[in-house]
Write a structure and sequence with these properties.
about 150 residues, alpha+beta, Double Stranded RNA Binding Domain, 2 domains, three-stranded antiparallel beta sheet
Length: about 150
Amino acid sequence: MTLDALEANIKSRQFIIVPGSMLIICVLTLQNGFNVTGESACADPTMFNKEIGERISEDNAKKKIWPLMGYALKQELYLAGEGTTFQDRARMEMRDLTDKLTKLQAFINGAEQFQRLSEEEQDLLIQQLFCMDAYARVLDKRIARF
């Protein structure tokens, strides 16, 4: 993990000065939509400097990203095979696939948004559902053999 990787993970920055105070809050929105906050507060009103406060609050928010990125990397390595068997990975894959199948089925069967799609797009989603279902049946057979 590098500082460049951390910076690339930041989608946007927002600074909020709490009205009636010298408290600055930095909200960093990460690429996946998760928000991390950092704060800075000035004790002496005569020393208040917006730019310094923003820099400190952003630095404090960035310090919170490191452990999140570390966890994400470790989880990725774990799922890629470190500490898991191929049977464990197949079961995890089946859980993920089942979840996606359930959501896609619900979307096709009940979402108004589905009805507003073009006929071609609806057909493609239905084909996707059938392919995912066939994939799940094959994966289920493999898992049953363990």
